[in-house]
Amino acid sequence: MDEAQARAWLATAVAEAEHGLAEGGIPIGAALYGADGTLLGRGHNRRVQDGDPSLHAETAAFRSAGRQRSYRGTTMVTTLSPCWYCSGLVRQFGISRVIVGEARTFHGGQDWLAEHGVEIVVLDDPRCVALMTDFITARPELWFEDIGAHDQ
Question: So which residues are the catalytic ones?
Fold first, then answer.
């Protein structure tokens, strides 16, 4: 995967994350790109806005893309390493590659995905790191709820 292309695609996910934050939600964004580079869908975490615990950014982008005959060759771009739920979505539907904006604040299931043949590209993008570290500092209770750490 060409890094310049990966960063260009990440910009779509970052814009979604910023949109989610502006709505009062958790600043995680995602986009699903086709094998030919076409943007199929985009979305952001809407757990807070919709009161739906299953509406993670990757899920929103996947739903936005609509039904595809195959997900072979597609790329999920996400501002944060995918959680186990979203990692399962990637495996279930055979998404070929995941571009991760950052994995410092949350590592998720990216190693498991790599072990099962999914190409993982971690960009360690400073915008993504700043979005999450600022959010975690400002709203730790919401962050711990989002990642399922109920005892925090």
Answer: 58
